[in-house]
Records
---
Amino acid sequence: MKITAVVGSPRGMRSRTRKLVNFVLAGAEEAGAVVDLIDLADMEIAPCTACESCSLDGTCVFADDFSAAYDRIQDADGLVFASPVYVDNVSGQMKVFIDRLADAMHYQNLAGKYGCSVATTGISGGDAVTGYLNHVFNYLGVTTIGGMSAALGSDTEALDRAEAAARDLGKQLALAVRDRPRYPDQEAEMAENREYFAGIVRANRDWRPDGYERWVREGWIREE
Ligand SMILES: Cc1cc2nc3c(=O)[nH]c(=O)nc-3n(C[C@H](O)[C@H](O)[C@H](O)COP(=O)(O)O)c2cc1C
């Protein structure tokens, strides 16, 4: 079982979000997972330019670090998306990464995985950011078990106080990957999203037959 985290802080090793995520991954590891951490601070990822090339064959025009990060998350059974709060939202780095996942959303390439979200903030906005990241998970067809946010202010001990909850979140994610609990509300939302995405998969059928056939096999599209 593999659990991979994506950290959207630009601060690298100094990032408090990264430190909190390391606790989450430690909890997952204790529960038997092999863990991986993708730090967007180490990567050059260009923002989506809406050229729509990916809709032709799933490939982006930018040959940057996104594809390596994408391979790593595709290889995982469980995902952690984590971001600091920047002006009440995810960091720009995290948003750029999420936008580059548009084709994965349309084709539901990550569907069936489990996820959880993590945010750190100075004072406020953490729950809004974990809520947004969980919403993104559902767009991707990833079932979320929830998330945690920590308002750290300038308190140097606040991270230590969040450690137990973070480790537990990682453990719960690993258990979810193992036991595959059902969440009817999320299943309904994901099914509704797929009805919309099915229009894209159908429209691209002639030049992306493999994607179309996969959707038929999954039962997400009725063959015409
Ligand atoms: C550009 C910027 C915007 C921020 N916006 C907010 C904010 O809206 N609300 C808040 O409480 N903290 C805000 N913060 C503080 C960070 O969310 C907080 O320090 C966070 O723990 C940083 O995480 P990191 O160490 O992983 O980068 C902001 C920090 C920066 C640099």
---
Amino acid sequence: MRLLHTGDWHIGRSIRGRSRSEEFADALREVVGIAGQENVDAVLLAGDVYDHRSPTPEADDLVFEALLRLHEAGIPVVAIAGNHDSPARLAALAKLLRPIGTTLVPRVARPDQGAAVEICSRSTGEVALIACVPFVPERRYGDAADLFDAPELWHQSYAEGMGGLLEAMAASFRPDAVNVLLAHLFTDGAIPGGGEHQITIGIEYAISPSRLPATAGYVALGHVHRPQAVRGAPSPTRYAGSLLQLDFGEKEQTKSVTIVEASPGKPAKVREVALSAGKRLVDVEGTLDEVLAKGEVLRDAYLRVFVDTDGPVPGIAGRIRDALPDAVDVSLRYERTEDAGSGPPLSSLQPRDQFVSYYRHEHGVEAAPEDLLGAFDELSDLDGHG
Ligand SMILES: [Mn+2]
């Protein structure tokens, strides 16, 4: 049977306050189109459906539209919650979406309590068993482990315990089925895309690929935005990656979906199908004349402009933005005097980096404590900057 693996949709994400709804609509149309052309038996959506826990009606409209189009094409969807999604909200939506062929697993559950989803192939009659593991925040890990009457070992560390949890989920796999693990997690060694929250891709969250189930025909992961195969995993394992270049850390990445060909008892064969929707994110550097000339020829791209000057030039950012409407970020580069401190001007930094810089200056230390940065990330996420 054939499956389409996608994830990290992040519907509702903006860039420097600008809506990307049209780009998301294009990307979702592209994904639905590929699912139809490839005649897949199901779409697997590996979490971070939405960018915010309380998405806008516009974001809902985009997601519902895509799910309805897939339903009309007779393609079922299995989706899980990522760290950006509200499990409570997805749980409520799950009831409405079930009748249109979308099975949403919002929270970790035992396989016999709805977390193992069966899909029957229209063409071959084969059955796929999709074991679903939504994102587990560290503070909620104990609750998840308790569902499984977890042995003591599970309580030693997040990564160890999650390994045990994945094993327990894989216990539902059957030799006569196409066995798939669908999970939103960070594996050790994965290369971040750049748009993820740092705090959830830290070492304490890193699960060793060797802990992924060897009995899976395929492991469909979400969380990391750069499409990639996971090395060191016992079965074919991939991050599908995000739909668009979500932040400048993801510039130059070609986004894609993964097509998975699988039969019972065999490792799956996978291939990438590139996505072309959405604007590129491009850095432009040089003198004022140079950046204007370079920006002029870059169509369909959001620009981050670094302009070299001799010192502060009032109004230069405005002039660049007037000439290049897609310049979403403009910063000046010039020699700083001693007392101005080192590094780029505060106003050119993202809020998180501004906070880091402020903390360093105020407390005279090299770095802010990780838990404080975690709290900052959570607040800025709620505020819509995630
Ligand atoms: Mn994500």
